[in-house]
């Protein structure tokens, strides 16, 4: 076969399911968030948990930039990383403009770029907190400061905005900022031999290298990654040398080095430790550096961390982070359902990690996890109206416990309008508006389908344009149809992912069944393609009961219900109180139907189950001698997990007794 050069160009999503989300972000979420950032929204900003140190009176994010730029007077308000809310909003705007151009939105974003240029200091430094409040502490409290974290988010936003609008000012600000960082960090004498407490700059510098071709950006990204964990006294020495008694962030000093993934060099880390978002951001950068630098050691380390997450430390919804204390991983198989964290940002970060692993190697297990997180724990982070959000995505909720148990104050029953720490809403927005880039990856002459989403995509194979139209009613239907549009007959491979949950599958090419072997989760169709060729993929959408590893103590004698990529849950609004009394016996019959009138149109599952009988003689005793339990028949209604808490507040349960 002749060697083929394959490149991907435009990807246009026309999918009914995902276009709704992208349009909601564009028309509702982005304008709403802009009002919030300008303190113009009449909303209640909630603390994400019971903690009086959380600033939640207002956002003040745009005002901070105006003060830093000298346009207004005043003090910085909000978290030290408040700038990143604006940057992630800007990145979502960039992707949204590529999806559907909006001149007024572009003018608004251009004005933000102008403001950032005025706020940037002469040496390229850009951070409103330290410019306004403590310029003498620049880069001197990196465990807490989030300076490089914020810088990374701006660089990512600038790259996206430059690609969308060709705004060179946005990219110029980013390069000046990167130059400033390069002047301060590195192995050379007089530079800081250290790293930020929250990984992000490493991701951004790798992207900046790809856009500009400047090798020093790639080298600086490598420096930050490889330096992490080398000197385990770095943070302590900075704190000792700091002359201020004022913490940058209250309470950060109590966390161990593993919280920052700084307990050992990255190549020696083999378990997912610490703050979940930081961990997956680090892994995202590691996977990208492995790809860009052909770094086999880095890739091997990525695989170890990946395996530990998905095999021992990930929820069935794709959520990660088992404890509110440090928003962190804990231990293998420690996956409590009612006190977990499962931050929306962590699942977004897991998708970033999965995607960069797919760039390294075509393995369906990465796309499986990407899909799992996307359809479950990511979009559960946003209400159907696009104006209410979850920071935490629990798998079990009882409202009274969330209200009265301090250890469950982070487990919300309904989505708040905004948070004091508002990292999740704009992170969700930038992911959803850039969803088109996750559908395909390319290796050699093979186009790998990672997600089944209705779209049309243009590829170029040896300067010959190829258009692939994908049509589907996923995730409600397992039928997916690909049509090839080409001027001349062209040879390449089309790889179709067979998801982990599809126990059977059928593939047809122009009506003829294709008998192909599964290779790392994909069936690869290598052939010479003609104009009008059609490929049909039929996936098994049978309702399934899933059990957890026996070492997961929280899920013993329980099952979770899944259909296609969607995890289902029971809500009080459909099933009454005390959901823990429900039981799904082994021989239960399931019925699925699509309900256009429910939650904007979702698939609903009914199952003939049982409810443990509760008699009044229990009212005056807490314990009694064990005796035969009695059950009553009950028709249980299950809805997709991602849309729970969009109706009457109440209990929710993913894992049900069997």
Helices and strands in order, then pairings?
Elements (H helix, E strand, L loop, with lengths): L5 E8 L2 H22 L7 E2 L14 H8 L14 H17 L3 H17 L8 H5 L9 H4 L1 H19 L2 H17 L16 H12 L2 H13 L6 H8 L34 H18 L2 H17 L31 H17 L3 H15 L17 E2 L1 H6 L13 E2 L4 H10 L6 E4 L2 E4 L5 E7 L2 E9 L6 E8 L3 E8 L7 E5 L2 E2 L4 E2 L2 E8 L4 E6 L4 E3 L11 E6 L2 E6 H4 L6 E2 L6 E6 L6 E11 L18 E10 L11 E2 L2 E2 L1
Parallel strand pairs: 2-4, 6-10
Antiparallel strand pairs: 1-7, 3-23, 5-6, 7-8, 8-9, 9-15, 10-14, 11-12, 11-15, 13-14, 16-17, 17-18, 17-24, 18-22, 18-23, 19-21, 20-21, 21-22
Helix pairs in contact: 1-3, 1-17, 2-4, 3-4, 3-7, 3-17, 7-8, 7-9, 9-10, 9-12, 10-12, 12-13, 12-14, 14-15
Keywords: Hydrolase
InterPro entries: 6-hairpin_glycosidase_sf, 6hp_glycosidase-like_sf, Beta-AFase-like, Beta-AFase-like_GH127_C, Beta-AFase-like_GH127_cat, Beta-AFase-like_GH127_middle
GO molecular function, one term: hydrolase activity
Description:
This is Glycoside hydrolase family 127 protein. Residues 544-656 form the Non-reducing end beta-L-arabinofuranosidase-like GH127 C-terminal domain. Keywords: Hydrolase. Helix 7 runs parallel beside helix 9, helix 9 (201-212) packs antiparallel against helix 10 (215-227) and helix 12 (276-293) packs parallel to helix 14. Strands 3, 16, 17, 18, 19, 20, 21, 22, 23 and 24 form a 10-stranded antiparallel beta sheet that branches. The chain folds into 4 domains: 43-255, no CATH class; 265-437, no CATH class; 440-539, Golgi alpha-mannosidase II (Immunoglobulin-like, Sandwich), CATH 2.60.40.1180; 544-657, no CATH class. With 658 residues, the protein is an alpha+beta fold.
